[in-house]
Amino acid sequence: MRDPLTVAVVLIVAITIFDAPTPSPAQTPAPSDATPAPAQGKTASIDAKAGEQLFATTCGFCHQGGGRVAGRGPKLAGTERPDAYLLERIRTGKQGAMPAYGGAFSEAQMRALIAYIRSLKDEPQ
């Protein structure tokens, strides 16, 4: 079990670093039921890098090898689960298996985690 104070400090630092300012209503896209496609090009690599840092400090304890191998949590590299499923699992967790991070991570942080997961490549055997 992790020290609660250490976890709290890591989460506060991560939120401070990765919390993006809220866009004005003019910049906010219209709501959509569909999950947007992953970002392309440079934006995707920036999101994946931010997601990698967040993953290392919060998810890597259970998802070993940076998510490339199964540990206490499942292997995430090569997952065929849709982004909407991953987003909901990060947000609400899984009782008895994974904590809910919806109250700790912003929407941008959760999307950065998904960008990182999508960037993972299986390690050669």
- Do you know the CATH architecture of the domain at 41-125? Orthogonal Bundle
Order of SSEs: HHHH
So, the CATH homologous superfamily of the domain at 41-125?
Cytochrome c-like domain
Strand segment count: 0
Topology:
Layout: H1 4-18, H2 41-58, H3 83-92, H4 107-119
Helix pairs in contact: 1-2, 2-4
Description:
The relative contact order is 0.19. The protein has a domain at 41-125: Cytochrome Bc1 Complex, Chain D, domain 2 (Orthogonal Bundle). The chain has helices spanning 4-18, 41-58, 83-92, 107-119. With 125 residues, it is mostly helical.
What tags apply to this protein structure?
Cytochrome Bc1 Complex, Chain D, domain 2; about 120 residues; 4 helices; mainly alpha; about 0% strand
Brief description of this entry?
With 125 residues, the chain is mainly α. It has helices at 4-18, 41-58, 83-92, 107-119.
